Amino acid sequence: MGGKIMESLQKLGKALMGAVAVMPVAAIMMGIGYWIDPEGWGANSVAASVLITAGAAVLDNLGYIFAVAIAFGLARDHNGAAALSGFLGFATVTMLISEGKIAGYKGIDVAALEGEEAVAWASQGWAAIGPKNVLIGILVGILAAWVYNRFHKTRLPQALAFFSGRRLVPIMTSLFAIILAGVLFFLWPVVYSALFNFGTAIQGMGAIGAGLYGVVNRLLIPTGLHHALNSIFWFDVIGINDIGKFLGGASTIAAAAEATDIASCPGVWTGSSCEVVGVVGRYQAGFFPVMMFGLPGAALAMYMRAESKQKKTVASLMMAGALASFFTGVTEPLEFSFMFLAPLLYVVHALLTGISVAIAAAFQWTAGFGFSAGFVDMFLSSQNPLANKWYMLLILGVVYFFIYFGVFYALIGIMNLKTPGRGEVEDGGAMELKAGETSEVAKTIIAGLGGAANIDSIDYCATRLRTVVKDNVLVSEKTIKSAGVAGLIRPSQHSVQIVIGPDVQFVYDDVADLLASSAVSLEGEKEA
Known about the structure:
Layout (H helix, E strand, L loop, with lengths): L1 H19 L2 H14 L9 H14 L2 H13 L5 H17 L2 H8 L8 H8 L11 H18 L16 H35 L3 H14 L6 H9 L7 H7 L1 H9 L9 E2 L4 E2 L11 H19 L5 H18 L3 H7 L4 H20 L12 H7 L9 H24 L23 H11 L6 E6 L3 E6 L7 H5 L5 E3 L5 E5 L4 H14 L11
Antiparallel strand pairs: 1-2, 3-4, 4-6, 5-6
Helix pairs in contact: 1-4, 1-16, 2-3, 2-15, 4-5, 4-8, 5-8, 5-9, 8-9, 9-11, 10-11, 10-17, 14-15, 14-17, 14-19, 17-19, 20-22
């Protein structure tokens, strides 16, 4: 059972790579735009506006991107109908249970809510349903892929024949999406309310509470519910408003000086005075060492532990993710590269984040951000009057770089964790293909596999063609190797894995085209 779960997580992790690959550039564009115009976020600069808007097109629609990428990646033959179904399913669910729709179903005027009623409504979390919701994106992506794999060859009666096969998939996905929306109608407020109550419970726990918040914040990243938790601590939902008060700077200090009781104190009321310096920002500061230094250290460890033939491919992914994390504080490109492939590392990452947040809060080292805990915001917040010993966060960050590197490097090796670039290529290197050569290679590979009719299924990963043949006797390893492939692996009697290298997609595309022209589908079955 455990092996099947891990295999499923690894498949999900592979499907997520399509979404992860677009994040770093988007994060960097937003970071540069924010650097150019930190006050107006594009209102004062056309260049900043273009960069921030282009980056936001990705980061503000992660739910859609995850739904499409997962549906496409988990579909048996990676057909566009699955991707379309993922998009349609996500739109259906999020529109059915959007805040406005839920308020309409229940006859509630959200704008008129005040006091405890407003807090009670916020605690249900319907405002978190939207294009950014990664959890719903993942759920819908898995659902759409299952629908595609189950129904894409379904035949309907002649009168409805036009809607048979792949055309049926988006229709079925929409129907199942309605059911999923119905389940979330009851489940979502329960989960969100639990997070809301958690936030109120740990508010008075000082540094320990800040550390617990840091741990749970990272653990919720895969679900997208971290936004729910963040809103409690960072914004004015229950009065904490850590980001708003920190960015207020001088006005927050002035309000603290005039405070006469706990109700008027924007920080911590000691009984006779209101403390804000070293206090406001404690739910933000501890993320800087992790995002600027810790995760880049983890990226270096994953690169060092990658198979030698995969280092070039892994280096590009890790470098882009590390740059995004350090410069802008956007960590998803790195976190999603290992959270499903090696969940243990992600738990360690969450614990280390909590420790960093707790240490910063305990020593009252504070810094804040308007975007995220990267270099841009560190530089800008250093001038804020509420920034307290912010330079100590950089020192802690250097220590964290080596801690992350050492822990990740050791655990990957000791436990043989399948982080990016591990277990994909054994011996043989990678093919060096020039333009126009892939077609001939594809023809030779098909011939070596016993011809198109002998191929039961074909897919590819980062470096290999993964095929299943009907009759293993017809496979000629000599013919396949004559194509100049980097290696040949036979995990089972009917499974043949052909090591190509980073250019595997182009070989796969040509093989797929040749199979299609010979009336054989990618599943290896004759087309009707």
